[in-house]
Design brief:
One of its GO terms (cellular component) is cytoplasm. This is Small ribosomal subunit biogenesis GTPase RsgA. Keywords: Cytoplasm, GTP-binding, Hydrolase, Metal-binding, Nucleotide-binding, Ribosome biogenesis, RNA-binding, rRNA-binding, Zinc. Residues 102-257 form the CP-type G domain. The chain has 332 residues and is α/β, with parallel strands linked by helices. It folds into 3 domains: 8-88, Roll (SH3 type barrels), CATH 2.30.30.140; 92-250, Rossmann fold; 260-322, Probable gtpase engc, domain 3 (Ribonucleotide Reductase Protein R1, domain 1, Orthogonal Bundle), CATH 1.10.40.50. Helix content is 25%, strand content 22%. Strands 1, 2, 3, 4, 5, 8, 9, 10, 11, 12 and 13 form an 11-stranded mixed β-sheet that branches. A 3-stranded antiparallel β-sheet has the order 7-6-14, with helices on one face. Helix 3 packs across helix 7 (263-269) and helix 7 crosses helix 8. The longest helix is centred in the last third of the chain and has 17 residues, at 306-322. The model is unreliable at 219-235 and 327-332 (pLDDT under 50).
């Protein structure tokens, strides 16, 4: 939580949010930004010193009206009671682990998404694709950050695999412990900019945050040597102020990422398959053994790959299956 009285612009305020305040609300309520989410309390910053307040909005359902980190709230000038969550520019959320009927909010009002992965055996193209689908779904600029380059002599192999996921995808390779190595990431961390980090446990998100902040205040843990799998270090979603004026929004590691309502994002990430499918003889082609299947023809010709086809089919099938579950939303 920031220790100074930040201006709204420094906290990431945009004209977008001003447009959603009524004339009656100006003066009686003022906006604060949610900088951390804890059990039963949220940390906010804005006018006055940073403080903890109750996250419960009177009369609001336990849904997307519940504040999450990165949100802007209107609070009463006298009582500090939250009135409402201002409309969001974007919202990252996922299906709650273990219960596909529920949703879990991750972060709101993000400018750039750092998709963090490590250059070791835990590297997964399929997992990167899921994070990229999430970014495309909410129209946030994604940057893949490959960490732990100091522990491998073949970082180029991981970089090539990541770049192959989508044309024009920005990929940065860094040693998260080296300030000079991560300095290039500062271009996305200017005044009032919010950068969220997503990635599995153990990929080095907390180390990256510490280095960008010039601090070691965030705890880190070693990965398991036998399989390069990490353990959860970050336990709350929290925004960290950077010297460049921007904010890093750290989140707990997520190995299980069940996408929520991600049809558009899937279509964007796998647009080469979508385009190829338009050439199929039958509009309801399942891309199996049907005659005249343009997708299978492209795979046979080598312009599309069967491995990526299988991942596309799996994500599309998951999206279809989710429609069978009535959604019970929850925030936080």
């Amino acid at each position: 939580m920031t220790s100074t009285n930040e201006t709204l612009e420094e906290l990431g305020w945009r004209e977008f949010f001003s447009e959603h305040m009524t004339s009656d609300e100006v003066g009686q309520y003022y906006p604060v930004r949610v900088t951390a989410v804890h059990r039963g309390k949220i940390a906010v910053a804005g006018a006055g010193p940073p403080r903890f307040i109750t996250p419960y909005i009177q009369g609001a359902a336990p849904s997307d009206d519940h504040p999450t980190v990165g949100d802007w709230l209107l609070v009463d000038c006298q009582t500090l009671q939250p009135l409402r969550v201002l409309p969001r520019m974007n919202l990252f959320k996922r299906r709650a682990p273990g219960d596909p009927r529920k949703e879990q909010m991750i972060a709101a009002n993000v400018d750039t998404l750092f998709i963090v992965a490590s250059c070791n055996q835990d590297f997964s193209v399929a997992r990167l694709e899921r994070y990229l689908v999430l970014a495309r779904e909410v129209a946030v600029n994604p940057v893949v950050v490959l960490t732990k380059t100091d522990l491998t002599d073949t970082s180029e192999k991981f970089e090539t695999a990541a770049r192959a996921i989508a044309p024009g995808l920005r990929v940065e390779t860094v040693n998260g412990k080296d300030p000079a190595s991560v300095a290039g990431l500062a271009r996305w961390c200017g005044k009032g900019e919010t950068v969220a980090l997503l990635g599995s446990s153990g990929v080095g998100k907390s180390t990256l945050v510490n280095t960008l902040r010039g601090s070691d205040s965030i705890a880190t843990q070693a990965i398991r040597a036998r399989d390069d799998t990490g353990r959860h270090t970050t336990t709350v979603r929290e925004m960290h102020r950077l010297d460049q004026g921007g904010w890093l929004l750290d989140t707990p590691g997520m190995r299980e990422l069940q996408l929520s309502n991600a049809g558009d994002g899937i279509s964007e990430v796998f647009d080469d398959f979508i385009i190829a499918a338009h050439g199929c003889r039958f509009s309801d082609c399942a891309h199996g053994n049907e005659p005249g299947c343009a997708v299978r023809a492209a795979i046979a010709a080598g312009t599309l790959t069967s491995v990526r086809f299988d991942r596309w089919r799996k994500l599309a099938a998951d999206e279809t299956a989710k429609a069978a579950y009535p959604m019970r939303r929850r925030g936080g």
